[in-house]
Amino acid sequence: MQNGTPDKPEGLRLRARMRYLYHGGSPAAVRFRLAVIVVDFIIIAFFLAAPILREAGWAFYVLDYLVAAFLAADMAARALAWTNIRDWLKRPSTWIDLFILATLLFPAWLYNFGFLRMLRLWTLLSSDFFWRTVGRKYDDTRVEEITRALAALVTFVFVATGFVYTTFRGYHTEVHGYLDALYFTVSSLTTTGYGDITLPGAWGRVLSIVIMLSGITLFVRLAQTLVRPHKVRFPCPVCGLQKHDPDAVHCKACGETLCIPDEGN
């Protein structure tokens, strides 16, 4: 007890500390989240290079378990920082991270699913955690929309590449290495179709069609975000509409008068 106030239990102090770091707006909390994001990008680079690094033998498994330790600690901290852990467990990104953690803890058994680790890039760049930290200075939502669309496209490229590499390498195909799988994915996704690398059988053709159609969809989405008129995030005080034109005077939904600050304010 200090100054007549009973001390908080250790568990409550820890949860308050995690909420401060993961959701606070102070410079110290922002620096902490920036450090976590930097480590996240390093881990994503490790995931990308994993098919090549696995040939290093035991050194790869050491790195694998170090990444698993960081991811487990980060997930535990996020769970403590969340108001209701049950709500946190209902988030799709939580289940993706749990699956990624399982592939790290059991790399010998779940290595064939390791290509799904690249989903971490999509969950990171689509998370409120990232945009509260890195993107907090952007009132222009166009930056966020372009980043999300680009993240979806890049994630799909590497997830598809990993699937092709894991499934078809060594099965009487031209896919002899990771670069061959990446080359096939990009040429199929852009519908270039040089034909020097093809996948055998009906499943190979089905996969090629899926990559082509998904690639067109993701490219169209990215193009739309690039040419679409940008908006700013300014919630309407009456109807709650989040996005408006930068020079909007009235809300398009309810007609409420708006006072959107410009760069000079």
From TrEMBL:
It is found in: Membrane. Residues 154-227 form the Potassium channel domain. Keywords: Ion channel, Ion transport, Membrane, Potassium, Potassium channel, Potassium transport, Transmembrane, Transmembrane helix, Transport. It comes from the Bacteria. GO terms for cellular component: membrane. It is a multi-pass membrane protein. Pfam families: Ion_trans_2. One of its GO terms (molecular function) is voltage-gated potassium channel activity. InterPro entries: K_chnl_dom, K_chnl_Slo-like, K_chnl_volt-dep_EAG/ELK/ERG, Volt_channel_dom_sf. The chain crosses the membrane at residues 32-52, 58-81, 93-111, 146-168, 202-223. This is Voltage-gated potassium channel. It comes from Brevundimonas viscosa.
